[in-house]
Amino acid sequence: MQSESKDSLLNTKLKTIIVLIITVVIFSFVIFRNLFFQSTYLLKSFGELSVDPEIAFKNNKPTFLEFYAEWCEVCKEMAPKVSALKEEYEKDINFVFLNVDNQKWDNYIRKFNVNGIPQVNLFEREGNLISTFVGKQEEITIRDAIDQIETKADYHSKIINPEFSGIKEKNKHEVSPRSHG
Questions:
Q1: Where are the domains of the chain?
Q2: Is the Cβ–Cβ distance between 149 and 65 less than 8 Å?
Q3: Rounded CA gap, 116 and 67, in Å?
Q4: Which of these, 2, 37, 61, 163, is most buried using a 10 Å CB contact count?
């Protein structure tokens, strides 16, 4: 009889400990979800925070144009850096974010030859392309290019980094950001 009583008590304690652990894990996940999903959340919010590209190219301000996708791991990694730049410069620069998975941006994807993401294009006030960055970039690199927009209108550079989400060719030999596998 005592053995059954001890087993029952042990099972009750074990069940209580398991429930407690599960509760703590779920509670921690809810409390710290922003840490776990910050980059994904930032990417999803980019489209909502974006200046319309038509307005951006006509309002006499420099423009930061980023092509991205929510599934792109490099885009997720760069999202906090880009968000910090946006917070710092958004009064002086248009920030335009175009999701390559949204077909309404196809004309811009073709116009700016997007063949890897993330791709950041920087334009001076008159809408002339100054810099193009493809792939993973350090925040300081983009910050320096942004600072150059105002100080040196004839500044031209193209930085290509091998760490980007490549574009695979479709069967019809057409290439687009959405053809990534």
A1: 2-31, 39-179
A2: no
A3: 9
A4: 61
Strand order, beta sheet including 119-123? 94-99, 63-68, 119-123, 129-134, 157-160
R_g over Cα of the chain: 24
pLDDT attached to residue 61: 93
Q: Residues in the chain with pLDDT < 70?
A: 1-7, 28-41, 150-181
Residue 177: the pLDDT is 55
- pTM, rounded to two decimals: 0.65
134 Cβ contact list (under 8 Å, min separation 6):
115, 116, 117, 118, 119, 159, 160, 161, 164
User: What is the CATH architecture of 39-179?
Assistant: 3-Layer(aba) Sandwich (3.40)
Please spell the DSSP secondary structure of the chain, one letter per residue: -HHHHHHHHHHHHHHHHHHHHHHHHHHHHHHTHHHHHHHHHHHHHHHHHPPPHHHHTTTTS-EEEEEE-TT-HHHHHHHHHHHHHHHHHTTTSEEEEEETTSGGGHHHHHHTT--EESEEEEE-TTS-EEEEEES---HHHHHHHHHHHHH-TT--EEEE-S-SEE-PPPTTS---GGG--
CA dist., res. 151 & res. 11, Å (int): 72
- Pairing relationship of beta strands 63-68 and 94-99 according to DSSP bridges: parallel
